[in-house]
Inverse folding.
């Protein structure tokens, strides 16, 4: 049985940097017209399927994860990102954590692009946050013998299920983005693994990488077809 000791890896400067960036961007939103102003959101890089396809503004798949719509939106996401980052950044390592966070955000927006409404403007770090849930679940499946990981994995799974269930009853929530983030994070968790935990077999990591590539290509294709 492996032991988990993260005392010497306790720094979470990447998590703190992410939170600082989110709040700085939110202040910019407020100064430029308000975080609930559609024109402001669009100008700063929020997701909109038509702009991505017709205007080829593919960067919105990345930038949308840094924008938020209202104080409650950024507050709820910031609290959860801070909470998840306290144990995930030490587990993954700083650069793995940043990589899976950012890529999960893009992965969530990809599914929203593939099947979301063309008329909707969406934004938020919750795509990346659900990606962190997915990463924890992947680590949990490979390291269930470690009590701490077993607990965290079951907790992340419960949070993901509860939040997705709540999304079904909230018309203003982009459930596709959340689901896409969860899927992306799970695949990335298998591919990248942890700096301090048992890794998946290399064959499974290759399979996960292939599935991730197929997922990206499929979402891009579906988004272009639907929007055209």
């Amino acid at each position: 049985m492996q032991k988990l000791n993260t005392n010497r890896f306790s720094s979470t400067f990447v998590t703190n940097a992410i939170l600082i960036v989110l709040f700085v961007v939110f202040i910019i939103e407020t100064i430029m017209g308000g975080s609930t102003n559609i024109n402001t959101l669009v100008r700063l890089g929020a997701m909109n399927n038509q702009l991505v396809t017709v205007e080829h503004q593919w960067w919105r798949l990345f930038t949308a994860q840094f924008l938020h719509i209202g104080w409650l939106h950024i507050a709820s996401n910031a609290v959860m990102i801070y909470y998840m980052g306290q144990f995930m950044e030490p587990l993954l390592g700083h650069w793995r954590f940043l990589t899976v966070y950012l890529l999960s955000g893009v992965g969530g927006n990809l599914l929203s692009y593939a099947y979301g409404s063309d008329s909707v403007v969406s934004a938020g770090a919750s795509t990346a946050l659900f990606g962190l849930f997915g990463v924890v679940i992947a680590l949990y499946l490979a390291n269930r013998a470690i009590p701490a990981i077993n607990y965290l994995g079951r907790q992340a799974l419960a949070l993901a299920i509860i939040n997705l269930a709540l999304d079904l009853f909230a018309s203003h929530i982009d459930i596709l983005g959340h689901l896409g983030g969860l899927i992306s994070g799970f695949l990335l968790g298998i591919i990248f693994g942890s700096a301090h935990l048992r890794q998946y077999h290399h064959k499974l990591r290759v399979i996960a990488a292939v599935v991730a590539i197929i997922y990206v290509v499929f979402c891009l294709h579906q988004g272009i077809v639907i929007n055209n």
